[in-house]
Amino acid sequence: MPTPYQTHIGSFTRKSTFFWAAVGATVGLANLWQFPYLASLHGGGLFILLYLACLLLVTLPLMVTEAAVGRYSRHGIVLAMDGLIRSARQSRAWMAVGRLSILAAFLVLSFTAVFGSIALAYVFFGALGRFSGAGEAEATGILAGLVSDPRQYRVFMGWHIFFLLLVLWVSAQGVVRGLERALRVVVPGALVLMLVLFALAAWHGRIDGAISHILAMHPEDLSWESLKAALFHAFFTLGLGMGVWAILGSYTTPQTRLKRSILAVVLMDTLVAILAGLMIFAIATDGNSFDGERGFSLLFVSMPVTLAQLPASQFVIAAVFLLVVLIVWTTSLNLLEPIVGWFREWTGAPRALSVLLIGLSVWLAGLASLLSFNVWAEERMGGATMFRWLELITGGLLIPLVAILIALFTGWCLTRHLSGTMLGATPRLFAGIWFWVMRLVLPLVVAWIGIQYTAFSLANLCSNGNVAAWCDQPAAMVSEDGEVAARDRPFAATPAEPEEKAAEAEKTAPASDQKSPEVKENGGKSGEKAPKQDDILYDSV
Question: What is the rounded CA–CA span in Å between residue 327 and residue 383?
Answer without folding.
Answer: 32
